[in-house]
């Protein structure tokens, strides 16, 4: 036999054994329905807690409290109403809060007014 061929065979066998030794063993287990529902419930509980935290932090803001006071709702009433919300309502409100624009949105009418004021300022100068 050729020495280079023996060397290649040796390295091929060594590499193959090394790859087989480093490969993780595959394991398959059955997952019960109870275990699956528990993991889903814990994930939904974490999401619900985060959504409630979002609502609480939004309602704790001073500008929100002032607007609610203007509308005739005290802080105690709003807390009671928040506590009475269902999980779906909490998720919906938190989604609406998270999707609100940070600085508000300008409509077409506001854009036209700003443009007219800019034109008047330029003409006045």
From TrEMBL:
UniProt cross-references to Pfam families, sorted A to Z: DUF6627
Residue spans crossing the bilayer: 102-124
Keywords: Membrane, Signal, Transmembrane, Transmembrane helix
Top-level taxonomy: Bacteria, Pseudomonadati, Pseudomonadota, Betaproteobacteria, Burkholderiales
Signal peptide location: 1-28
Protein's recorded name: PA2779 family protein
Keyword Transferase: no
Source organism of this protein record: Thiomonas bhubaneswarensis
